[in-house]
Design brief:
Chain lengths: 182, 504
């Protein structure tokens, strides 16, 4: 008896459908149009051997909150895996209306706030630099992810911030006519 | 081994990561006692585990630990250190710290504080070099006072030009200016950045050399006036003035240019009264003209490629020179063999604009086999802290020629993994396969021109990554992963609880 499970796998910006079939001869894996007899053997902590037909290679895997870290052949990526059936079910449910949510810009790393380029009330374009953060010997430009209006600024220039510290709050607004990004 | 009388035995290493590990290894090979220091974030790190002893410095931020001179000197006193090796970065080029070490009776493993001071001010260094007949980039010999003065000077220097920090280095306080109308804003930005980074906002102007190669010469000088040049390195693969890949010798360099560079570097070292290991950096224009850039008065990150082609252990040589030994080599003894290339594997997301990353290295796979050298600062299970330089490891390959070194490095990268922390491995694989690099037609603009490519991970590899993740997920849904420690812990706990209840 053959049992098939299809996964929607997101890796390096691509969505791929991967099907794993349990047959009496063993597992068969399919990615797009390609099919292989596959083997998956755990060898040690995070260490696996992936067999694809006659080719075998070492794979490192670690589970994360969002999916998996996978490394093979000198490349690595964060990969998310979702059961395609669950995805179809979710798609069938009524879509919640897009909410007008405020966006919190947080420090992506610990560092020192070098500049704050906006004040409450300012309109910013998508991608506009709103602040710069000095961390790990570099100046990092923090940009608005969406067009919006600055609701609050929670840091001062020169202030040291921890990873994840709230820097400023934006609310959705129409894109201002002139893009002020540098 | 260099036979030398040892005026010091106990060496404090005022650094962390791979360079601390490198110095500890040199100490161990010479039978010297290594003393490591660590911040709160590094209490369990590799350099602490490898050193003969390790001492706590302070909280994680560098200013309170690795940059804190008084704390370092206090540890040196407490631990009975006799010499200090600063590594690179942190206080390595801080003349005040070097002088404070000497005042405390410690041997400073590096150039004299006065030399460091003179070379640290870039305008002074340019004047010294010019007087010694070393070609410098056309530009101002003094810092510019303000925007108006800069505008006047820029007329003579010509556009495009570079604004550079007098106290600078490493690309900080540096700005490219293409047109006069950009000058005032760029000057202000450069001044602010230089002030923040070095406590000195002075800026000078240099003409921008078009499509240059970054070529540097390794020098070694003893306290008795002997200077040797240990060949050159090409470090043209950079982004934001930070090197990513280096090699020795520099490929495609005309013999006359190469000879000119080596002689200029020796003249530069003599003019500065240089002692110990150092690097003289040059820009080489496409026509072969070269210009002095700066002297790095310390050990360089990329020193291993020179060690691989010369067979000379630079760190052990540094220790010997600091101990008062004369150099055992004359220039004619320096013979280069083969070619070596280094990849700096950074904990930076190369696919997202080289964003610094941090976190736990869940698993590490290290390459091995002929012609390889790996200098890592971390092992599996270590956490990369977010406070410091993001260098994870340096992977070097040596070959009888450049083609063999390239092939070995490509092969080694395919065997390598630092799982759990975004890194630059995919970038290095891309560079090593790029015809502009393999044919040595590249310059310092290579990364900006070509990275990221449309498909940084080859499509066939993306498919295998997807297949592997799906298989891992498939098996995990059926049986918990063997390394899923949280689940194992719960299961063990439940079993123990059941046993305690028995007999009922």
């Amino acid at each position: 008896m053959t049992q098939r499970t299809t996964y929607r796998v997101r890796v390096a910006g691509r969505d791929l459908d991967v099907t794993i079939e349990a047959t009496e001869q063993g597992l068969v894996g399919q990615v797009g149009e390609q099919r292989w007899a596959v083997q998956w053997r755990a060898r040690g902590p995070h260490t696996y051997t992936l067999g694809r037909g006659d080719a075998h290679e070492e794979v490192l895997v670690a589970a994360t909150a969002e999916g998996y870290w996978v490394a093979l052949a000198g490349y690595q990526a964060q990969v998310s895996v979702v059961d395609a059936r669950a995805l179809r079910l979710a798609a069938a449910l009524p879509r919640p209306a897009a909410r007008q949510e405020r966006y919190e810009l947080r420090a992506p790393m610990p560092g020192r706030v070098l500049t704050v380029r906006v004040a409450p009330g300012a309109l910013v374009a998508r991608g506009a630099v709103v602040a710069t953060l000095e961390a790990m010997k570099m100046e990092n430009e923090l940009r608005a992810p969406e067009p919006g209006r600055v609701v609050a600024v929670h840091v001062r220039e020169g202030e040291a911030v921890e990873h994840g510290a709230l820097l400023l709050v934006l609310e959705p607004a129409e894109e201002p006519p002139a893009c002020s990004s540098e | 081994m260099i036979p030398w009388a040892r005026p010091f035995r106990r060496v404090l290493i005022a650094n962390r990561g791979e360079i601390a590990v490198r110095v500890i290894r040199a100490c161990r090979e010479l039978g010297l006692h290594s003393i490591a220091v660590y911040s709160e974030a590094d209490a369990h790190s590799l350099h602490v585990r490898l050193a003969d002893e390790a001492h706590y410095l302070g909280p994680a931020p560098p200013r309170e630990s690795y940059l804190h001179s008084e704390r370092l000197l206090a540890v040196a006193r407490r631990a009975g250190a006799e010499a200090v090796h600063p590594g690179y970065g942190f206080l390595a080029e801080n003349a005040d710290f070097a002088a404070a070490c000497e005042a405390a009776g410690l041997v400073w493993i590096g150039p004299r504080p006065a030399t460091m001071r003179a070379l640290g001010r870039k305008t002074d260094a340019r004047q010294t070099m010019r007087a010694a007949g070393v070609p410098t980039v056309p530009g101002t010999l003094e810092p510019v006072a303000d925007a108006a003065a800069a505008r006047v000077a820029a007329e003579t220097v010509g556009y495009p030009l570079a604004l550079k920090a007098v106290a600078g280095g490493g690309g900080r306080g540096m700005r490219r200016v293409d047109r006069p109308e950009e000058l005032a804003a760029a000057l202000h930005a450069a001044q602010q950045e230089a002030l923040g980074a070095f406590g000195d906002g002075a800026i000078y102007l240099e003409r921008l050399v078009d499509r240059p190669r970054h070529v540097e010469v390794q020098i070694l000088a003893d306290a008795y006036g002997a200077v040797v040049a240990l060949g050159e390195r090409d470090c043209s693969v950079q982004r934001r003035y930070q090197k990513l890949l280096e090699e020795a010798p520099a490929p495609g360099l005309a013999p006359a240019t190469r000879q000119g560079l080596l002689e200029a570097a020796i003249r530069a070292a003599r003019a500065a009264g240089y002692v110990n290991a150092g690097t003289v950096e040059f820009l080489v224009a496409p026509d072969g003209a070269f210009y002095f850039l700066e002297v790095n008065a310390r050990l360089q990150v990329e020193h291993p490629v020179t060690e691989l082609v010369t067979g000379i252990d630079l760190v052990k040589a540094q220790l010997a020179v600091a101990a008062g030994e004369p150099l055992p080599w004359r220039q004619e003894d320096i013979v280069l063999r083969g070619a070596a290339i280094e990849c700096r594997i950074y904990a930076e997301d190369a696919l997202a604009g080289f964003t610094p990353s941090a976190g736990r290295l869940e698993a590490v796979r290290l390459p091995s086999g002929p012609g390889l050298r790996l200098d890592a600062g971390y092992e599996a299970g270590d956490t990369v802290p977010p406070y410091y330089d993001t260098l994870l490891a340096k992977l070097c390959a040596w070959g009888a020629d450049r083609a063999e070194a390239l092939a070995r490095l490509r092969r080694a990268l395919a065997e390598c993994a630092f799982l759990g922390v975004p890194n630059t491995l995919a970038f290095h694989r891309y560079v090593l396969d790029h015809p502009e690099f393999t044919e040595a037609r590249h310059d310092t603009g290579f990364v900006a021109r070509h990275w990221p490519p449309p498909e940084p991970i080859p499509p066939a590899v993306v498919e295998r990554l997807a297949l592997a993740a799906a298989l891992a997920h498939y098996h995990r849904q059926r049986t918990p992963m063997a390394d899923d420690t949280s689940r194992q812990a719960w299961a063990a706990q439940a079993r123990q609880a059941a046993l305690r209840r028995w007999p009922p």
